[in-house]
From TrEMBL:
InterPro entries, sorted: ACP-like_sf (IPR036736), PP-bd_ACP (IPR009081)
Protein known as: Acyl carrier protein
Species of provenance: Amycolatopsis dendrobii
Origin superkingdom: Bacteria
Lineage summary: Bacteria, Bacillati, Actinomycetota, Actinomycetes, Pseudonocardiales
Signal peptide segment: none
Domain Carrier: 7-88
Amino acid sequence: MTTTPNQDLELTSAAIEERILGFLAERTKTSWEPEADLFESGTVSSLFAMELVVFLEGAFDIEIAGPDLKLVNFRTARVMVGLVERLRAEEAEDGRG
């Protein structure tokens, strides 16, 4: 299903999590729990974090920059959901979203 940015404004936490987990499963060929530490597992490396940044920015129309580019923000799907929600809210408040 293709969505427009306006339709994406209504994304729920569960929908964001589902998209992130889908991306992770596709890229790593592994099923992930929302709280699983991706990097501690040894399945992905810190270089994979850059793929996560590109995916999150494109999938959710956000910009991840500066202090948000910390590995801690990409450790689990659940943490990434929080990051996406916060950045979407900030961008909407600033009139960018």
